[in-house]
User: Fold this.
Amino acid sequence: QTLGLITTSLALHAPSQIAASVKKHAREAGYQVMISMIDEGDPSAIQQSINDFKSQFIDKILINVPLETAVARQLAEDNTDVTCLFLDVAPDSGVFHVIFDPANGTQESVKRLCELGHQDIALMPGPQNSVAAKLRLANWLSGLASFSKTPAAVVYGTWDAQSGHDGAQQLIDDHVKFSALLVGNDQMALGALSALNKAGIVVPHDVAVIGYDDSYESAFFIPSLTTVRLDLDAQGKEAVTRVLAATEESVPDNCILPAEFIARDSTN
Ligand code: IPT
Assistant:
């Protein structure tokens, strides 16, 4: 028996960890996993992958591609003969999902920085086509607003370390006044640490940095990275359990996993 997994680039942190987790937990349940890796932002590629799975009699499909609510709903509507479980959609999407709470860790990050006395907080969200990145940004902004603050600057990255490096470099080149930087994921935070270091800006003394994900490496960055932990193994496990439990008569409840703030040395 086989499960389908449609995913964005496995070169990224979360998709690779989720795929590993899905494989592991599916195997424990006696299932194999067929992976279809697609380019983002192309719903027709997702439908094509679903069709490929259907032609192989695979009727339980996990979709780890960032999808706007309208697109996710359309896919679910167009494919009622299979069970699609979505891993990167908004909590109010209405489709079958296992996702992370976009609010708790992000708002805690802002709160910590404000409590430490930071006035000028710059934001480096992930790509604008990512649902998760947009939700993290929205929660940073509402967190800042609750402290009557607006961001010192907003520079977008593309999830990878190079974009984090370039974003931080841009803040430096633009002479943006900032004492803290909230970053959309740890890979971008690593790049930002490198750019700050090269410019002689000391973390956390001059600038505090907070990432997101808690990748395995983040505790070993210099300095060790304060971040928000996503338990991607738990997400894969919940997704496998719930998609396997779905029947034609009933679909299990959706699941929102917590995202926990982890304090380390990159904030003081
Ligand atoms: C999200 C990660 O936080 C980010 O680092 C990047 O890997 C992205 O996925 C890729 O889509 S987590 C995801 C479950 C929204």
Summary: The pocket of IPT is lined by residues 8, 12-15, 66, 87-88, 130, 132, 159, 185, 212-213, 230 (CB under 6 Å). The two ends are 51 Å apart (CA to CA). The chain has a mean pLDDT of 96. The first helix runs from residue 13 to 28.
